[in-house]
Write a structure and sequence with these properties.
Number of domains: 2
Distance between the termini: 56 Å
Shape: elongated
Radius of gyration: 22 Å
CATH topology of the largest domain: Spore Coat Polysaccharide Biosynthesis Protein SpsA, Chain A
Order of helices and strands: EEHEHEEHEEHEEHEHHEHHHHHHH
Largest sheet: 9 strands, mixed
Mean pLDDT: 86
Oligomer: single chain
CATH class of the largest domain: Alpha Beta
Structural class: alpha/beta
CATH superfamily of the largest domain: Spore Coat Polysaccharide Biosynthesis Protein SpsA, Chain A
Length: about 350
């Protein structure tokens, strides 16, 4: 049960706006709010958006008496992206940071991220590492540098729970896509193409795992959303390297995987690698990332015999993918077994 905090704080505009959409999480939302109230950094506002919950979530939130907490109670369920836009539109902070209502922020999360952003004006968003708890207790190690995060976004959402510079967000009229389930992935792609995004090496966020999470209950639709967003990220990479990219061309996730398409993908990757050699937008990490993506797609979408043939023909991509003896033994085993 949430504690009843009584505070009479006369606030000017806060430095950080914490955005917390909540839906049917009465058992956890008190822990989430407590973790913000107990932060070592105190110059914040917490905007909680109850998205038409059917349980006691709204009642739990309203037990808190703290002038820094702003409560929005939606009569109907608008979904998370709409709630994020709704809260950010009224946020007053120099930065905003998203907090899921079933998770827990470590006590120095706001302070460490605020300090970093204040001392690095070129950075538009700063994430951190997280520790899962509940059904899973795995630590998640995200990449920390801008280049590693940017290249990682080509393959998956390797950046999350950041603090975002509000001036950048407003300057480019950004908003969370309300028609996209993986709305955070798309936002980080947008920010990565506007400025530097980095992550601290510290674990500052505790991510609760349980059966009612949207990421579990709606996994198929989320996977389709991320499929589309990987293509958006690839197109942005082409633009960074000065290469024209057909809007209808889906390098990473085309459902049509025949030999000509896979060869075309290999040719496109080599084109990107060669262009990067001349203009040096990225280090040679780009070679490894792109070739490994092609390698994984090859064996996920093709029979092992046909895939092995194409892999043999792509000598340069094999080299860039840094395949070792273990990889080849495994592939030969699959080939013989299959």
């Amino acid at each position: 049960m949430a504690k009843n905090y009584k505070k009479n704080i006369e606030m000017t505009n806060p430095k950080i706006s914490v955005i917390m959409p909540v839906y049917n999480i009465e058992a956890y939302v008190g822990d989430a709010i407590d973790s913000i109230i107990n932060q070592t950094f105190t110059d914040w506002e917490l905007i909680v958006v109850n998205d038409g919950s059917k349980d006691r979530t709204a009642e739990v939130v309203q037990e808190y008496v703290d002038k820094r907490i702003i409560f929005i109670d939606n009569a109907t369920n608008k979904k998370k992206p709409a709630c994020l836009n709704q809260a950010i539109s009224i946020a007053r902070g120099d930065y905003f940071i998203i907090m899921d209502g079933d998770d827990v922020s470590c006590l120095d999360r706001l302070q460490k991220k605020y300090d970093y952003m204040e001392s690095h004006p070129e950075v538009v968003a700063c994430g951190c590492q997280l520790q899962r708890f509940g059904k899973s207790n795995q630590k998640v190690n995200w990449p920390t540098t801008y280049e590693d995060i940017y290249l990682g976004l080509l393959n998956s959402c390797v950046f999350n729970i950041p603090i975002v510079r509000m001036s950048t967000y407003k300057k480019y009229n950004l908003f969370f896509d309300e028609n996209m389930l993986a709305e955070d992935y798309l936002m980080w792609i947008k920010l990565a193409n506007l400025g530097e995004i980095v992550a601290l090496p510290d674990v500052l966020y505790l991510y609760r795992t349980h059966d009612k999470q949207i990421s579990i209950t709606n996994l198929m639709n989320i996977n389709e959303a991320t499929r589309l967003e990987k293509n958006i990220m690839f197109k942005s990479l082409c633009q960074r390297l000065g290469i024209m990219c057909d809007e209808n061309y889906e390098l990473w996730t085309s459902n049509k995987q025949n030999e000509s398409i896979l060869v075309e993908k290999a040719d496109r990757i080599m084109q990107l690698i060669e262009r990067n050699k001349s203009n040096r937008v990225f280090t040679d990490k780009l070679n490894f990332v792109l070739s490994k993506i092609w390698y994984r797609q090859l064996f996920q979408s093709y029979t092992i015999k046909q895939a092995f043939k194409l892999l043999y023909e792509q000598k340069q991509l094999r080299y860039y993918a840094q395949l070792n003896v273990v990889n080849y033994i495994y592939l030969c085993f699959k080939l013989i077994k299959g």
